[in-house]
Design goal:
The complex is a heterodimer of chains A (about 140) and B (about 325). Chain A is mostly helical and about 140 residues long. Chain A has helices spanning about 5-15, 20-45, 50-70, 75-80, 85, 90-105, 110-115, 120-145. Chain B has about 325 residues and is of the alpha/beta class. Classes of the chains: A mainly alpha (about 140), B alpha/beta (about 325).
């Protein structure tokens, strides 16, 4: 079999990820996380925090929970089931920062933890910041017109 | 270059040490040692792999009643940068050492080189060994172990395991009869999550060359065992060998499929890593040969020659496969 023929053949026969099943699981778990967030928001509101501040505390709580679950080795098991369901909410970002930080501890706090904690989340920060600049420029142009 | 024939190289003994997941798999009763703690009582995963290597070699020495001066040369390797898994694990010994790298084919490479050195009379005996650890492999090639992600169905799971083999001129029930050095074959696969497909062309090349040059037929073997092609690679290699005019399917097994229960343990396409063939061969197959259940086997170590950067640079993954024929005397 020619090289390209083999590559095409092997790629074609490789089993694909079951995207409908994965999508359903992500929808379910992602939805549960969002409900949890809403519940926390309501709770903080009920406790007397203004809506904006309650929202910040919801993020803080979810980041804390994701970090904690990463630290005790449970998050990756949930994420294996949930996929994008845990990846897309803020929990995925927290795990992406916490897991390399924990992992790199063996190389020390400076060149290990501090240097490597953004190896996975780094691109999100870079492109997130870059796209916010683009968004800001568009917003400014629109508001001037 | 053709098949190498050995006349007086015997497998004196072997030892296989595995981790928790492998011990929960179908081959649990065949391994010599196992450890439930993925750290093997050490502070880091890299040290854990070295500790596993150390314990496994110590067990082989104990079983065979060996001392450092009884071993002419130690040949070994693993998947870590600069092969530190092996070198740190054996540094307390004073045995001449050659580090090897053949990715997951390393144990076959070690058995080949070791047998050549023993047959050539350069050393009276040799130890060949190879190891891998799930967590060190994940750290080096993929993500931190705690990172939450989903693997595609073609992905394989690195075996935590170490195997060591004592080669000697002193007759014993198993002989290393023949071997063949593999050639690098690049099938053009670029997906690092489909290593089975990347290694299959090299495995097929070595199998076809071996049967073409040695004059043997697959029917003369009780088992033709590829190292860690997994489910995807197993089917591909059978197809490629079939296209080359040989049928191996009835007696073909794969270490990556033997070591785990794919469904129950959720292992996708199966096990992989240097520790896969070295523990399946050193634990399961060699013991079945000793029990007289297998008379002649062909062990085909299969390696995917990539590092963490090459797939990001869009380079394809070349494969290599070395084969060793073991015979019950």
């Amino acid at each position: 079999m020619a090289k390209n023929g083999y590559q095409a053949y092997a790629d074609a026969r490789a089993k694909r990820s079951p995207w409908i099943k994965n999508g359903a699981k992500a929808f379910l778990v992602g939805g549960i996380i969002c409900c949890l967030g809403q519940g926390l928001g309501n709770l903080y509101g009920w406790a007397g925090l203004p809506e904006k501040e309650a929202g910040t505390w919801v993020s803080v709580t979810l980041i804390f929970l994701a970090g904690l679950l990463t630290g005790i080795g449970i998050f990756d098991k949930i994420a294996k089931f949930a996929g994008a369901g845990t990846l897309v909410p803020i929990t995925g970002f927290a795990n992406a920062v916490a897991s390399p930080a924990i992992d790199a501890k063996s190389e020390g706090y400076v060149l290990g933890v501090a240097a490597k904690m953004f190896t996975i989340a780094g691109p999100v920060i870079v492109f997130g910041t870059a796209s916010s600049v683009v968004y800001g420029v568009i917003y400014w142009v629109c508001s001037v017109l | 270059m053709g098949t190498v024939r050995f006349g007086d190289v015997y497998l004196g003994g072997s030892s296989a040490t595995v981790g928790k997941k492998e011990m929960a798999g179908p081959l649990r009763e065949w391994f010599d040692l196992h450890e439930e703690d993925e750290y093997f009582g050490m502070p880091t995963f890299e040290q854990a792999e070295s500790e596993m290597v150390r314990r496994n070699l110590a067990h082989l020495f104990e079983k065979m009643n060996l001392k450092d001066e009884d071993v002419g040369v130690l040949l070994g390797g693993d998947l870590l940068n600069q092969c530190t898994g092996t070198s740190f694990g054996i540094k307390s010994h004073s045995i001449p050492f050659l580090g090897l790298y053949g990715a997951c084919s390393t144990i076959a490479e070690g058995l080949l080189v070791g047998s050549m050195l023993v047959q050539g009379g350069f050393v009276p005996s040799a130890v060949a060994m190879a190891s891998s650890h799930y967590c060190t492999a994940e750290r080096q090639y993929r993500f931190p172990p705690e990172y939450g992600n989903q693997r595609p169905p073609t992905a394989q799971y690195t075996v935590t395991g170490a195997g060591a083999f004592y080669l000697t001129r002193v007759p014993s029930p198993i002989r290393i009869a023949e071997g063949i050095i593999g050639r690098i074959v690049d099938g053009g696969i670029t997906d690092a999550n489909n290593m089975g497909a990347a290694m299959a062309p090299a495995a097929a090349d070595t199998i076809l060359r071996y049967f073409g040059e040695s004059g043997r037929r697959p029917e003369e073997f009780d088992a033709i065992v590829t190292g860690d092609l997994g489910r995807e690679g197993l089917e591909l290699v059978q197809e490629l060998v079939h296209q080359g005019g040989l049928e191996i399917a009835p007696r073909h097994m794969d270490g990556g499929l033997l070591i785990f229960d794919l469904k129950k343990q959720d292992m996708h396409c199966g096990g992989s890593g240097c520790g896969c063939l070295s523990t399946v061969l050193g634990g399961y197959l060699v013991k079945r040969m000793r029990a007289g259940e297998l008379k002649r086997i062909l062990a085909v170590g299969t390696g995917a020659l990539l590092n963490a950067s090459t797939p990001l640079q869009k380079l394809s993954i070349p494969g290599i496969a070395h084969a060793v024929c073991l015979e019950a005397v």
